[in-house]
């Protein structure tokens, strides 16, 4: 079922400007709000992403963190794989300014990544994909810069658990999260966008299908937080794995 688009959300044409301005406003309180909204579970979710790279057994991974924000996911990768070379990119510069000073950040648009083809051993993102004006193009860019055999990992919210908990999930997101945004971040509109963009986002199965459409293989997902969040993992096939047309 295709989610109903909320009137709260910006148009596709206006989305890049809207998203950049919104994250720029909330940058000082972004990490605190994530911790409050998730009950502190956001750190655990990022560790799961990072540990999926550590399991590759390659100590000196080159990793691109797309939409790195304040760098929390990049930090988790470095803790799990201490010798990894991590570059974080984001088009919201105020978010990058609130990141750790010793991390390597660059301003860049997720739809036009400034890297050569087959550049990174792994590409990761956390709570970014649903904010893109063109999700398919964003996935294609991540696949383009990923080396054959490399791993792509997406951490993202879902429209909610597909069971009796969904009404409770929607009540929490639509009523309590904007209130927290008003009280803590001083920006209710930003934390109204958050639940609406989540509820309008793809189910994990549809996101997995988009990864396969971009030629990625070994696609599998793991739902967390009673199905409210998902980690989706895929690989870019090596030349030997690509079948001739």
Can I get a quick summary?
The protein is an alpha/beta fold and 245 residues long. 40% of the residues lie in helices and 20% in strands.
Task: Write up what this structure looks like.
- It is built from nine helices and seven strands, in the order H-H-H-E-H-E-H-E-E-H-E-H-H-H-E-E.
- It is α/β, with parallel strands linked by helices and 245 residues long.
- It has a seven-stranded mixed sheet, with helices on both faces.
- Helix 2 runs antiparallel to helix 7 and helix 3 crosses helix 4.
- The longest helix is centred in the C-terminal third of the chain and has 20 residues.
Explain the layout of strands and helices.
Elements: H1 15-26, H2 30-38, H3 42-54, E1 62-66, H4 72-80, E2 85-90, H5 93-97, E3 104-107, E4 120-126, H6 135-145, E5 146-157, H7 166-185, H8 190-199, H9 204-213, E6 217-224, E7 229-235
Parallel strand pairs: 1-2, 1-4, 2-3, 4-5
Antiparallel strand pairs: 5-7, 6-7
Helix pairs in contact: 2-7, 3-4, 7-8
CATH architecture: 3-Layer(aba) Sandwich
User: What form results from the Cα inertia axes?
Assistant: globular
> Taking all residues together, what is the mean pLDDT?
91
- CATH superfamily membership: Vaccinia Virus protein VP39
Helix content: 40-55%
Count of DSSP strands = 7
Q: What is the third-level CATH name, the topology? A: Rossmann fold
Low-pLDDT segments: 1-5
């Amino acid at each position: 079922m295709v989610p109903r688009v909320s009137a709260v959300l910006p148009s596709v044409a206006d989305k890049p400007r809207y998203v950049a301005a919104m994250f720029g406003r909330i940058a000082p309180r972004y990490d605190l709000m994530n911790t409050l909204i998730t009950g502190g579970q956001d750190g655990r979710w990022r560790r799961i992403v990072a540990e999926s790279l550590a399991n590759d057994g390659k100590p000196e991974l080159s990793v691109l963190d797309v939409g790195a924000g304040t760098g929390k996911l990049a930090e988790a990768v470095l803790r799990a794989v201490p010798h990894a070379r991590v570059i974080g990119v984001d088009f919201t510069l105020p978010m990058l300014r609130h990141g750790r000073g010793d991390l390597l950040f660059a301003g860049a648009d997720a739809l036009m990544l400034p890297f050569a083809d087959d550049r990174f051993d792994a590409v990761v993102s956390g709570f970014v994909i649903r904010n893109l004006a063109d999700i398919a193009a964003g996935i294609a860019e991540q696949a383009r810069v990923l080396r054959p055999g490399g791993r792509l990992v997406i951490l993202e919210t879902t429209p909610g658990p597909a069971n009796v908990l969904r009404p409770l999930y929607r009540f929490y997101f639509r009523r309590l999260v904007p209130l927290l945004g008003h009280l803590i971040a001083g920006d209710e509109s930003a934390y109204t966008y958050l639940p609406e963009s989540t509820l309008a986002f793809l189910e994990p199965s549809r996101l997995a299908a988009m990864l396969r459409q971009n030629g990625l293989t070994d696609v599998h997902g793991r739902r967390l937080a009673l199905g409210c969040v998902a980690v989706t993992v895929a690989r870019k096939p090596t030349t030997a794995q690509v079948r001739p047309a």
